[in-house]
TrEMBL record:
It holds the Pfam family DUF1003. It comes from the Bacteria. This is Uncharacterized membrane protein. Keywords: Membrane, Transmembrane, Transmembrane helix. PANTHER family: INTEGRAL MEMBRANE PROTEIN-RELATED, MEMBRANE PROTEIN. The lineage of its organism: Bacteria, Pseudomonadati, Bacteroidota, Flavobacteriia, Flavobacteriales. The chain crosses the membrane at residues 119-139, 145-168. InterPro entries: DUF1003.
Length: 232
């Protein structure tokens, strides 16, 4: 009589009430895969107890939560690594162009001084002193009388030398601007690609979570139905 009211589980080989008997055919595939992983001989022709099935249902839900936490951690790690890799893109332009030569340093200094109010004021004072000294102090009989040919020669030589020096500095500045523009383009392109990758990852996570949550809800509904059937 006892044998009619009980059965032997194909998993634990223990005896359970016949009312707790569950066929493997009714088990959802993800949970069945967990059982088959622990018991390779278990297939859809076997049986187990509802108590054992609930244990694997809980294990399935726990594994899902652990996997989700791991995926979020991996996503954060990828974002951090991606941000740290930006150092190669936003490095100093001077490092890319190399150290300045002596001539380039002189050209930059001359261009910086020649394009300042300090140079204009000092040069204006120098010209005024030159003219006043030759007209009023030397009575226009000095080393550079009117029309100040020597002064014109000095100004012409200064302009002839200053122009190419300033052009050298401007060429170097244009080269630096080109490098900055190239780096800006690379950074913008990398940012766009990272944003696209993040969107794809978020879309994948959302779709994956929705599918898994639906699966978990189905498992939970089965568990509630089993509990209600046992109560009845």
């Amino acid at each position: 009589m006892k044998s009619n009211l009980t059965f032997i589980s194909d998993i634990s080989k223990k005896e359970f009430p016949l009312a707790d008997k569950v066929s493997a055919k009714t088990i959802r595939n993800p949970i069945l895969a967990l059982i088959e992983n622990d018991f390779p001989d278990f297939d859809k022709t076997k049986f187990l107890a509802i108590e054992e099935l609930n244990m694997y249902r809980e294990k399935y839900i726990s594994n899902y939560l652990l996997v989700e936490i791991g995926e979020l951690s991996n996503l954060e790690a990828k974002v951090i690594n991606s941000l740290s890799e930006d150092k190669s893109l936003v490095s100093d332009v001077e490092d890319e162009l190399g150290a300045r030569t002596v001539g380039q340093k002189v050209a930059d200094q001359v261009a910086g001084f020649g394009g300042s109010w300090k140079f204009i004021i000092l040069f204006g004072v120098f010209i005024m002193l030159w003219i006043l000294a030759n007209i009023y102090i030397l009575l226009n009989k000095g080393f550079d009388p009117y029309p100040f040919i020597l002064l014109n020669l000095i100004l012409s030589c200064l302009a002839a030398l200053q122009a190419p020096v300033i052009m050298m500095s401007q060429n170097r500045q244009e080269e630096k601007d080109r490098e900055r523009a190239k780096k800006d383009y690379m950074i913008n392109l990398k940012s766009e690609l990272e944003i696209r990758m993040l969107h794809e990852k978020l879309d994948h996570l959302i779709m994956h979570q929705q599918e898994e949550l639906i699966e978990i809800q189905k498992v939970q509904i089965e568990m509630m139905n089993d509990i209600l059937s046992r109560i009845k």
